[in-house]
Amino acid sequence: MTTLAILNCDVLKVEHKTASVAAAQDILIEKEKIEKIVPSGSISIADNAIKIDGHGLLAMPGLINSHAHTPMVYFRGLVEDVTVEEWFNDYIWPMESNLTEEDVYWGMLLGIAEMIECGVTTVADHYFYMDQEAEAVKESGMRANLAWAVFGHQGEKGLDRTVEFIRKWNNSVDGRILTWLGPHAPYTTTPEFLKLVVKKAKELGVGIHIHVSETRDQVQNSIRDHGCTPVKLLQQVGVLDHPTLLAHCSFATDEDIELLTHYPAGIAQAPKTYMKHGVGLAPVVKFLKKGIPVGLASDGAASNNTLDILEQLRLMVLSQRVSLTDPLALPVGELLDMAFRGSARVSGFGDSIGDLKENNLADIALIRQDGLQNFPCFNPAVNLVFSINSSQFDTVICNGKVLMQNRQLKTINKDKVKQEISKRLERMTQRVKGKSIAFYPS
Amino acid sequence: MTTLAILNCDVLKVEHKTASVAAAQDILIEKEKIEKIVPSGSISIADNAIKIDGHGLLAMPGLINSHAHTPMVYFRGLVEDVTVEEWFNDYIWPMESNLTEEDVYWGMLLGIAEMIECGVTTVADHYFYMDQEAEAVKESGMRANLAWAVFGHQGEKGLDRTVEFIRKWNNSVDGRILTWLGPHAPYTTTPEFLKLVVKKAKELGVGIHIHVSETRDQVQNSIRDHGCTPVKLLQQVGVLDHPTLLAHCSFATDEDIELLTHYPAGIAQAPKTYMKHGVGLAPVVKFLKKGIPVGLASDGAASNNTLDILEQLRLMVLSQRVSLTDPLALPVGELLDMAFRGSARVSGFGDSIGDLKENNLADIALIRQDGLQNFPCFNPAVNLVFSINSSQFDTVICNGKVLMQNRQLKTINKDKVKQEISKRLERMTQRVKGKSIAFYPS
Question: How large is the ipTM?
Fold first, then answer.
């Protein structure tokens, strides 16, 4: 029986990499799932169902952030106009040594609030003190794949703590929380450590979320140190035998790409981060041609400055077209397929989200269509990609529950979160010589 | 005597390519000019002055769109996923043959409404039926440099019509309207025609706004046909002896750049257009190193999809950094200097706008600072460049007059404009075989 109904909205569908819009539909939701999508008024709806007026709104699958470090919103805009090495070694990693469990909780809530405002219903997060992230996800109503980041120098004891987290939280909170293992990267671990991770992944039956080949130097250093690329190394130690979320992978070689087609791996891409830091862009069109799933991601707001996936969508197509000098690269339908289904698969949620259809989970973002940047509107999908911005998201539903309506957050007290963040900023941004969570090799 | 006062706002200053913010200031305006900027409350303000509560808002110079075809908002999002040649020859130029004077008037109003909502107070526009644009600028309260586009095949008669327009409108409407000559481009005119333009420019004492070297092919074709680059051709025919607004100029050679340093020319850059169409990026850092003024521009919304200059600002730095693989290119202060003072100079307004200081024209945009994407806010200038979007502009003032307050437009009836546009769309977008305003050579 219908528990929630969105009445008379337009619905964005992306099928066979072609986007279309069905006007004037009712979306019926039963508990956490989409029950039916029907022409508006064609089915009578139970009196006690919650009803949302969707007139003028365009419904789409909730956006998915397939790689983030959400609590890094603390550092938004703090470290700018520096090199990647300075960014890590002089600022971010020293400051992250200040993190407490409670800091992570409040930072996660702030980031989730921003994501909900941007139409994002799912995040694949990679950070520390993940019990705290899980609590924030639980309260906020979002969906998440949580991976506790671990460096090689933390050894088996460090890894075991993340295993404990997985045992506690995997498939919990009405299925909204998945948990994967989170070894930081090949360059901050060892092959032996990664083999240990693989062993745990097998025991737990979970996937692995890891940074890989983010810069050209990382690939060259790996060839120097291990005789192979980071992707090849992941294959050799067995990581790729498990569902794997490869964050970045921008400097995958042609051989890496060929290799990845044989494994259950997906790639998360955060174009704004790569652009801002002058790192270089990934061969995204090649990934897609080979059938490797690609998802959109914000990375942390310390590098990306927002957690805005619609912005990443636009930057993805703009950056790829200019770097390939190809105006036909990533046509709108293919791009939206990446944003919705690609991101869902990459993030470990398969086909259960990323498409508004019967029996899928009810993760839905509704965007206003009456702004000037959406007028005229020959094609709502085109305007979504190229014109309007995330300020137009009006209503956000996750797992059949309303998280935002009329731009009002329903599950998070923004003022309280801002207060809590404010009183932590001074301590969080201190840098003490010699105190750092890791070292970035140059 | 103060006629308008903005009370207790923060003020963004960009000096010596460094951005800073003065908190809690009163901006006093006398008629069309900034009278004083003082710490809030330090001067008593005339009772009959209009007062705006600026608390929580960041004041900056009104943004400047240094090259647009504003009425092309009609075609927003209509022609996507095509090559540049198809875009011009199969769609845009055939459709523009449908334009009537009245179409231009309503299209200009729609575009101006969008620009005001995006904090833009000045536009350097290049289009047709410019009397109609001038009427729309007059009514809306914006500032503009208007150039009537003319192709070589229109001959002296076509040019004379644009001269007539200049005689009627130059320096009119309280000085808000400048008018320049608008030969379309070297590739759509002849050297003889351009010499005629130069003669008229000299007689009228006005500048010249022209497209140049937008693609690599245009440069190669010019070398083939004229034995020199388009920029060199402009020098040879005398265009560069006059104040010149070079739209795009993305494929300027090193010799072109050296040459431009000797002339009163500026360059307008619309990065989103170049990215979306896979055209390639300009050597912007080289331009700036050589002291050539560069401004931000949207081009037409048919290619750019918005008239949002804040979006162009962000895309400028992101696209340059990734193409140069240099995270230190275009630091925030230099970028804002380009956006404000660069755009002002390029657009023909010298130093009279683009900087909030005594005696400058009172063109001011105030942006909200309480959104989540602006929190935390270690540096408002950084967040302006990398985090927040144009939906946050709250109040816009041009020439001492309020054009938007609390996001409500004061001079334009949006509903009426949308109605007028809607009833024209079907006719405007018809394509009749053989009917086109020009032909784009491939």
Answer: 0.97
